[in-house]
Amino acid sequence: MRLAGKTALITGARGGIGRAIVARFLREGADVYAADLSEGGSLPSHEAEGHFVRLDVSCETDAIAAMERVGREAGKLDILVNAAGIEIEKTIEHTTLEEWNRSFAVNVTGTFLTSKYALPLLRAAAKEGTTSSVINFGSYDGFIADPGLAAYCATKGAVHALTRAMACDHGPEGIRVNAICPGYIDTPMLQSFFEGDGSGGAGQTIDQLQQAVRDVHPMRNYGTPDDIANLVTWLASDEARYAAGQLWVLDGGLSAQVQQMKL
Questions:
Q1: In the chain, which ranges are E strands?
Q2: What DSSP state is assigned to residue 238?
Q3: Could you tell me the CA-to-CA distances from 42 to 19, 58, 63, 188 in Å, in that order?
Q4: DSSP state of 223
Q5: What phi, psi does 125 have (nearest 5°)?
Q6: DSSP helix/strand/coil, 104
Q7: pLDDT (0 to 100) of residue 107
Q8: In this predicted model, what pLDDT tens digit does every residue of 154-194 receive, in sequence order?
Q9: Residue 263 pLDDT
Q10: In this structure, is residue 209 part of a structural domain?
Q11: At 43, which CATH number?
């Protein structure tokens, strides 16, 4: 088991990608703290895996309390996965200031707060002779842009820059920081995108939109939460001890192609 003896905290742990990461970490032997706004989360399940921690990542007192609990119960934190995120499907013209600020509060400030207050526990884990690992969630939308996702794209670009800065600042302490940048992944967020205005659906059915999205990928499909969990697991493990400061794009080759030639 790759993560035996390691303690992990995952934000957004009751969503599509978060649940897959929690389940995979448990199979790999980690002691997992599953942090989210509610036990049920955005993806209902009969399985309540991991130690649930109620955490609003945009709230400083919640972040402090979550890390204090991990400190009391585990004494260290080997792995922090910042998977919590929201998406607003609007152009800047139609995005309110409240929506803009909320996007940054969850996607960027949330990553900042949990990482900030996890640092003492991450250092404690690194002192045991191995590295600790922070895995942030960017997006391929932090490099290029889907239409109608202005605030989301802006937040993911910020997470990319923050990831590099954290890697430079805390690498000397034995803390590796990377970001995973997914493309289209089969989650409740993706389903919401298909149903919303941001998809540019032009009256197509959900099935037609889903097939159209598959067809523009070189691999002719979009990913699953388990695909993301596979990469997260490797980055969290000691096998990735030399991986730091990188933005790992996992998008089925979507961003590799010239978009005008997507046939």
A1: 7-11, 31-36, 51-54, 79-82, 132-137, 175-182, 247-250
A2: G
A3: 10, 17, 20, 7
A4: B
A5: -70, -40
A6: helix
A7: 98
A8: 999 999 999 999 999 999 999 999 999 998 888 766 666 66
A9: 47
A10: no
A11: 3.40.50.720
The three-state secondary structure class of 201 is coil
Neighbours of 117 (CB within 10 A): 20
- Which tokens go with 52? 């649930």
Q: Is residue 50 part of a domain?
A: yes
Residue 171's pLDDT is what?
98
Question: pLDDT tens digits for 20-58?
Answer: 999 999 999 999 999 999 987 655 555 658 999 999 999
Look at residue 258 and tell me if it is in a domain: no
Fill in the DSSP letter of residue 91: -
Percentage of residues of the chain with pLDDT beyond 90: 73
Residue 41 lies in a domain: yes
pLDDT of residue 198: 47
Range of the domain at 238: 7-185+224-245
Q: Indicate the residue type of 86.
A: I
**Model-level pTM?**
0.91
Q: How many CB atoms lie within 10 A of CB 123?
A: 16
Active-site residues, by number, are 152
Q: What is the largest CA-CA distance in the chain?
A: 57
Number of structural domains the chain divides into: 1
Secondary structure letter of residue 202 according to DSSP: T
Taking the C-alpha atoms of residue 233 and residue 219, their distance in angstroms, rounded to an integer, is: 23
pLDDT at 203 > cutoff 50: yes
Nearest one of 114, 116, 32, 24 to 78, comparing CA atoms:
32
The C-alpha angle with vertex 166 and arms to 246 and 91, in degrees rounded to 5, equals 75
Q: For residue 146, what are its two tokens?
A: 């889907």
